[in-house]
Here is the input.
Amino acid sequence: LPARHGGTGIRDPLDRTAAAYPASRASTKVVSKSVQGKAPFHPGDHRVTIRHALTRSKQQQDVAHKTKREAVLPHIDRRRHRVLSHSAEYKTSGWLTTLASTDNNNTGLDAAEFRDALNMRHGRHPPGLAARCDHCNQPLTVDHALCCKRYGLVIRRHNELQDTFAELIGMAWGDAGVRREVVLKEGEEGEGGVRANIVARGVWERQAAASFDICITDPDAMSYASKNRSTKSILKQHETAKKKKYRSAVCDSRVTFCPLVVTCDGVWGHDANVFIAHMAHALLEKEGWKGRGFSHVSGWIRSRLSIALARATSFCLRGGGRGGFAGLGCADGAGIDPSSP
Here is the structure.
């Protein structure tokens, strides 16, 4: 199946012949009649015929792929059903469909990261994981690996996405105005302070400060699975909790606040989606980006974030045994050495 329907995008040529042959005949109808002497050849009519034939063929194939995917869903377990539904409904295939570039080393995953992301995408248990967690000695399931707070792995996952966001914000509104880990409100006696992951100037209003806090959540955690919560409600809950926590701090500091909430498999909350679209519009006004379509720039941003999230999630699964993030040592902190295995 194509990536947008939950597959890997690697199609069997034999399966495509049934749809490709009638599409080819329909798109070459004008040429065929001209060669046979039945009608004069008009290039404009030929281009229109091709466009209509390919559009109709694509629509028919989309219906067939959707039918095939929906026929499989009732026969799989809850976790696999959810992740396969997410990949089609929320378009979480950015890391899979992006071509790695040696000119810009922020678009690649190493072999282990790619395999982990592919297994997670299809709700499978990644092979080669340890039997028990190295840090708390609990059985190492996928859910435990994504939620275990020992040894700081979830913090490193959070920081990987934070660094990517900070870099993208700097590209859109300038590096000089971007700060990380900014205290918005000092802690008082018996109370903790409030700190934003990223603060940047000029994001929503000229010279006005905007604060952001990142949250990565696992919708398959036991606390959610036992209540049969939907992904949208889980994301909304985290956004509401973040806003409640930061409300007084941002009012006192006169800054705006935006929670950036995402699931481990790349489903973004409403506020994060709004901000990503706003960032794409800002990039379109920069030199080097003008002339590119909004969908192109927005897709590039989502791909960068999707790859960073896949890389960080793999690190949680594998722990510290691999020696750190693949992005370390590269200029932008998000890529890998193209010569690495």
In short: The beta strands are 178-185, 194-201, 209-217, 256-263. The chain has twelve helices and four strands. The CA atoms of residues 280 and 294 lie 7 Å apart. The chain has a mean pLDDT of 81.
